[in-house]
Amino acid sequence: MHDIFQQFVERLNDSQSVDSFRVAMAEAVAAFDLPCFAYARLSPRSQEAVTLISTYPVRWTEHYLKSHYEALDPVIRASHQSVQPFEWGPGAAGFELTKRQKEFFDEASSFGIRWGYTIPIQDGRGPFAAVTFASSDRGEAFVRSVRRNERVLQLMAISLHSHARRKLWQSSVVGGKQLSPREMECLIWAAKGKSAWATAKILGISDATVRFHLANVRKKLNVTSLRQAIAMLSRPQTR
User: What is the pLDDT of residues 130-188, one digit of tens each?
Assistant: First the structure.
């Protein structure tokens, strides 16, 4: 367990992008025999999109973000109300769901996200975050791994958030506006002359998602063209 955590921290120290953070966490999660994870960061400003780093199925995460499910997600709501890690899923204590929330969980279940263990992160610096380890069912192996490694999983969640906050978000300001890490990556690749299709291949997402993020960039920067957004990228940045 100590070796896994040590290797994880070393990978975080070397990580500089969304994808490198995802790989670092994915390797550690796999070493603990946990199926998948999701790190969600939400700005206190509701007009800014949630940032997600995860190994959930891409079709689900793209649908989640485009549908703004963070406003509906019972796990996110519970994370706002607690500083303690908690389990969630069918029959879990404290999870009374509305009809729409049950439909949301049914959607997630169709992608293999049915049961999980979530660690809320509230560091007092504005954004709220949560790290979730999820599975298609509450199998013995999943429960055993979570409970046996509860402490180190919490340390991993806090470490991931701390490194990502320092390396990704402190440098994601353009024209005085905070961009998400993925928005920043898409803009940087566009500035290097990459098409949406090429950027999608580089980042491992769909070209529709790249266009979605670049549209958000134009909206945040209050410009009408990608060329104008790229021009703003090269200017000295102030918060």
Answer: 999 999 988 899 999 999 999 999 999 999 998 888 787 766 788 888 888 888 889 98
Q: Is the pTM of this model over 0.90?
A: no
Block residue for tokens 């958000």: 216
Tell me the C-alpha distance between 92 and 185, whole Å: 38
Domains of the chain: 2-166 (3.30.450.80), 173-233 (1.10.10.10)
Q: For residues 71 and 61, is the Cβ–Cβ distance under 8 A? A: no
CB-count burial class (<10 Å; 0-12, 13-18, 19+) for 69? middle
Euclidean distance between CA atoms 87 and 100, whole angstroms: 20
CA dihedral 189, 212, 54, 26 (to 10 degrees): -30
Distance CA 110, CA 233 (A): 40
| 116 and 132 Cβ atoms separated by less than 8 Å | yes
Provide the residue type at 127 as one letter.
P
Element (H, E) at 53: strand 51-54
Structure tokens at 99: 């009809």
